Amino acid sequence: MDVLQTFAGLFANFGNLTWQMVVMWAIGGLLVYLGIVKKMEPSLLLPMGFGAILVNLPLSGAITQGDTEGPITALFEAGMSNELFPLLLFIGIGAMIDFGPLLEKPWLMLFGAAAQFGIFFTLAVAGLFFDLPDAASIAIIGAADGPTAIFVANTLGSKYLGAIMVAAYSYMALVPIVQPPVIRLCTTKKERMIRMPYRKGNVTQTTKILFPIVVTVLAGLVAPASVALVGFLMFGNLIRECGVLNSLSETAQNVLANLITIVLGLTVAGQMTADKFVKPDTLLILALGLVAFVFDTAGGVLFAKLLNLFLPEGKKLNPMIGAAGISAFPMSGRVVNQMGLAEDNQNFLLMYSISVNVSGQIASVIAGGLILTLMGM
Amino acid sequence: MNMASLASTLPMMLVGMLGIFLVIGVIILAVYLLNRLTAKKDDKE
Predict the structure, then answer these.
(1) Do A174 and A45 form a contact (C-beta atoms < 8 A)?
(2) Per residue in A267-279, pLDDT tens?
(3) Are A206 and B17 within 8 A, CB to CB?
């Protein structure tokens, strides 16, 4: 009898299983599937998917249960509650970005600014359903920039961090599906066929070195809350461009970025417990994330069309490049180039679209800082 | 639905978009200035 009871005790934990946990296993499985089979942001969706299963096992030892601290909770306390992980990742991202083509044509940065419209529009819409800090955290999905979204949502103390992360990374991966219909809706075939010949400009190494310092100072003066975000991104870029720290630059681009990415996905998954995630609010957040991406895209395209009203014939811009102003790099730039080639197989927009895409990286970080400043942080 | 929130979020939308264009505008001017200054220096060299 004792043996039977002991044996039955081995399966006692099954009684703690809830249907919400099973739903989270399915969601975790879906994220793993999308990462592996569909190759959608696998470096983040796979750890998040696996982590979602891990933390939704009954009485999971991966997260804190009562007085017993779990490793994923410890990771969250060590690197997320103080925004350390997203900031460290930004050093790696900064080291990966070549701002050279953008510095040749700095005016392209205007599209990066215009394509942040989705963030502020979504803030207004999300405010109808959520309190202001959560609305601002949800709106920042439109930054199309995972670390910025984590940083802002965490700083504002949003309880929806898990859903915000899933929405941000999923839509970034879905840029080739989300953006083209919006671009087509906002442009005519004639506009999509506008050619933009590319003339290479000159940028000195001194400019490339001074640029990250100048951007940090300017952004920090206007939006002090953004100075950590901008500063870490630009520090990574300075390491890349200075020419004397190649080993550090390579480490930041590869080893550092990879290490942070591994723990970042798992740590975010720690916020995807069934009690926090299986709610109608999650579906609403996913819908609002889509609104943010759609209006980012429309904002960039419509701004280019606005500029075209003032430009002479022959100097008109292909308004599709405005859509690349969202931060999803390099997918958005490639999508715009492919759409240009689909309309006219000699219409190469890549240099413009990628430059605009890079400017979106700067603009999204500044937008995140502005959101925090406007929220009084 | 909290329609009253629009009273605070719409001004934030306006200020946010103006703010981002302002900051980006200043960065653009700074880059033009940097390009000009460093190009002159290189010419002299």
Answers:
(1) no
(2) 888 888 998 888 8
(3) no
Comparing alpha-carbon positions, the chain A residue that sits nearest to B12 is A374
Buried b (16+ CB within 10 A) or exposed e, A9-35: eeeeeeeeeeeebeebbebbeebbebb
Rounded to an integer, what distance in angstroms lies between the CA atom of residue A165 and that of residue B4?
28
Is A64 exposed, middle or buried, given 0-12, 13-18 or 19+ CB atoms closer than 10 A? middle
CA geometry: angle A288, A176, A95, nearest 5 deg: 90
The CA-based dihedral angle spanning residues A7, A13, A14, A17, taken in that order and rounded to the nearest 10 degrees = 180
* Number of domains within chain B: 1
User: Which two three-digit tokens encode residue A71?
Assistant: 């490793």
CB neighbours of residue A152 within 10 Å: 32
Q: Enumerate residues 6+ apart whose C-beta is below 8 A from A83.
A: A150, A151, A154, A155, A228
pLDDT per position as a tens digit, A48-65: 899 999 999 999 999 998
**3-state SS, one letter per residue, for A303-370:** HHHHHHCCCCCCCCCCHHHHHHHCCCCCHHHHHHHHHHHHHCCCCCCHHHHHHHHHHHHHHHHHHHHH
Dmax over CA atoms of chain B, in Å, equals: 65
Does residue B33 fall inside a structural domain?
yes
Q: Would the pLDDT of B45 be above 70?
A: no
B18 and chain A in contact, CB less than 8 A = no
Domain ranges of chain A: 82-374
The beta-carbon neighbor of B20 closest among A127, A207, A370 is A370
Task: Domain of residue B22: give its range.
Answer: 18-45
Do the domain assignments include residue B10? no
Closest Cα in chain A, distance from residue B45 (Å): 13
> What is the predicted ipTM?
0.88
**Chain B residue numbers touching A203 (CB-CB < 8 A):** 35
Q: How far apart are the first and last CA of chain A?
A: 62
Residue A277: closest CA among A76, A48, A34, A36: A48
Q: Which residue in chain A has the smallest CA separation from B13?
A: A120
pLDDT digits 0-9 by tens, B4-42: 889 999 999 999 999 999 999 999 999 999 988 888 555
* pTM score, whole prediction: 0.84
Residue A305 has a CB neighbour count (10 Å cut-off) of: 17
